[in-house]
């Protein structure tokens, strides 16, 4: 770890030259037997991996139109080729989105298309060999599923969909990734990704109540398992103890307190994150999401609000309604969804992002702020990939960009944008998303952060920026880890609700 | 002899193209979309999606964001190709439709700009390191095929005229299942052979990007996941099994 250094900033953001093989063999640790079996996958690479992998590919091609169309449609135009942060940082050509896709597409062509069966060399089709399988493992675990490439593709080909399919195939043959499968195991066994058991969680929350009381003199509550509460807060478990995440959790609690909203956490469902998406496994994605439905039904809440977490918000916003019925607009005879949707209060968005909740309250003049409390900060905002390109907020397209910025402007005086082709829908991934936030991938994470660090440095040099706000637990964890390697203070990164927490006025108005 | 061979080839190629495309399109249409995955920000209404798709198909909006060179060359080629194809309708209609007659001169120049666009795209494929890296032999051949079609067509127009009236009579005949006489002209044979190849290759290659783009869920889905429950058949089954 000590020998990992930050790559040099590009003087001018030129497209890097290719360094073939630069990241070969630098994939993450392979999952062991117990981790795989706990999720119903084979413990280790099965004997007939070849046939099973091709079989699974055929199965996925028949289940996902995205995969089917994306396998056929690519024309190798190269529009995406310089758009991936991992390619920019590592210069490995197989980290170009199109080349990453082609690792799978070449096999698709060989086994599922006529030209690939007849003239494999001509159309770049390959047999599935052990080398190819290893290459899949290596490079599909160097994609953070951030969807940046999909913004630029003339056919909307989303490498994330292809990475998910590849990981699903790998898991099917017993070749899973340790970090993701371990985390999914924990969420099933203990209730959250970090493996915090209920009693420890209660302890932490009581400690937080004392801390806030000491700091503000006010009894801000952090309730757990309160039946009949109005709001169920589902937040990434990192918010319970990691720095700087916890400061945002305090921020949510203060917003609920100041607006007199009754709310609760759930000890059974104490995790917003859903790594089922990262490994592309629908059953896992669904099973993990079902915990939220169960908690909502058991606690009888009227609203479900999601804390600052990027991929969790994508799953919540885009998938929860499909997976669990958390949302609205189910058919009248859809008993599964109606059971929950009848309980929820549809004057509000279901689910809602905590930023939507806070912004609504700000607009209703139910919160007051002392903006000067944030005057020590010159703030910029890092759009998190899954929020930016896989979800929305509010009523208008692009609300996912405007609402967090509106909140920052409402609670602080100094806000600066980073370079325009690196924010909003064109934002760069932090370098740690998609199930890659593990120390065995630290080199990749450091290199993948390069494009973001470059523009942050620019904002620091030009505007004296000293705080980068973001609304994602993975972004926060990744940046606090890799920013020191780039020479930044790790305290520079924090949540939007951390800023809210600094400025909010809790006393009588 | 050539007349009969080409008649058979064109009937076969057309059949393969139509059947192949229908098969592909029906596969795309039948494959479920279990999750909402529009690349956001995405339109919230059907009208918005129609607009987004139109911008994508007519102006190559995403490609424009990506790279001005690829966009410029690609758009030049595609727009020219469209004009050229429309211009060719004159060989299949009698009397020639008015608007087809009107675009004839534009179609003529479009042949040239099409060739320019193709050569530019091929140059990128050869000289830009990243794009050379991702290119397969078929990527080069596909461009060569199109360049061959454009070049042979242009040569018939500007260098060695062929008897277009006879060609037209031949194709009008084919449309009524009558095989007439095709002028024995080398350039014409080359041009027609390449076109036949293109028709056959189309439904079996990356040229499927043309129908594919309309089925791309990241582009054609509405952003209404919270407002309307989206459920595919196989995903719904998971609920009833419980």
From TrEMBL, chain A:
<feature type="domain" description="4Fe-4S ferredoxin-type">
    <location>
        <begin position="133"/>
        <end position="163"/>
    </location>
</feature>
<dbReference type="InterPro" id="IPR017896">
    <property type="entry name" value="4Fe4S_Fe-S-bd"/>
</dbReference>
<keyword id="KW-0813">Transport</keyword>
<keyword id="KW-0408">Iron</keyword>
<protein>
    <submittedName>
        <fullName>Succinate dehydrogenase/fumarate reductase iron-sulfur subunit</fullName>
    </submittedName>
</protein>
<keyword id="KW-0004">4Fe-4S</keyword>
<keyword id="KW-0249">Electron transport</keyword>
<feature type="domain" description="4Fe-4S ferredoxin-type">
    <location>
        <begin position="65"/>
        <end position="94"/>
    </location>
</feature>
<dbReference type="Pfam" id="PF13183">
    <property type="entry name" value="Fer4_8"/>
</dbReference>
<dbReference type="InterPro" id="IPR009051">
    <property type="entry name" value="Helical_ferredxn"/>
</dbReference>
<keyword id="KW-0479">Metal-binding</keyword>
<dbReference type="InterPro" id="IPR017900">
    <property type="entry name" value="4Fe4S_Fe_S_CS"/>
</dbReference>
<dbReference type="Pfam" id="PF02754">
    <property type="entry name" value="CCG"/>
</dbReference>
<dbReference type="InterPro" id="IPR004017">
    <property type="entry name" value="Cys_rich_dom"/>
</dbReference>
<keyword id="KW-0411">Iron-sulfur</keyword>
<dbReference type="GO" id="GO:0016491">
    <property type="term" value="F:oxidoreductase activity"/>
</dbReference>
<dbReference type="GO" id="GO:0051539">
    <property type="term" value="F:4 iron, 4 sulfur cluster binding"/>
</dbReference>
<dbReference type="GO" id="GO:0046872">
    <property type="term" value="F:metal ion binding"/>
</dbReference>
From TrEMBL, chain B:
<feature type="transmembrane region" description="Helical">
    <location>
        <begin position="143"/>
        <end position="160"/>
    </location>
</feature>
<dbReference type="InterPro" id="IPR023234">
    <property type="entry name" value="NarG-like_domain"/>
</dbReference>
<feature type="transmembrane region" description="Helical">
    <location>
        <begin position="6"/>
        <end position="26"/>
    </location>
</feature>
<keyword id="KW-0812">Transmembrane</keyword>
<dbReference type="InterPro" id="IPR036197">
    <property type="entry name" value="NarG-like_sf"/>
</dbReference>
<feature type="domain" description="NarG-like">
    <location>
        <begin position="68"/>
        <end position="210"/>
    </location>
</feature>
<keyword id="KW-1133">Transmembrane helix</keyword>
<dbReference type="Pfam" id="PF02665">
    <property type="entry name" value="Nitrate_red_gam"/>
</dbReference>
<dbReference type="GO" id="GO:0016491">
    <property type="term" value="F:oxidoreductase activity"/>
</dbReference>
<feature type="transmembrane region" description="Helical">
    <location>
        <begin position="68"/>
        <end position="86"/>
    </location>
</feature>
<protein>
    <submittedName>
        <fullName>Nitrate reductase gamma subunit</fullName>
    </submittedName>
</protein>
<feature type="transmembrane region" description="Helical">
    <location>
        <begin position="106"/>
        <end position="123"/>
    </location>
</feature>
<keyword id="KW-1003">Cell membrane</keyword>
<keyword id="KW-0560">Oxidoreductase</keyword>
<keyword id="KW-0472">Membrane</keyword>
<dbReference type="GO" id="GO:0005886">
    <property type="term" value="C:plasma membrane"/>
</dbReference>
<feature type="transmembrane region" description="Helical">
    <location>
        <begin position="180"/>
        <end position="202"/>
    </location>
</feature>
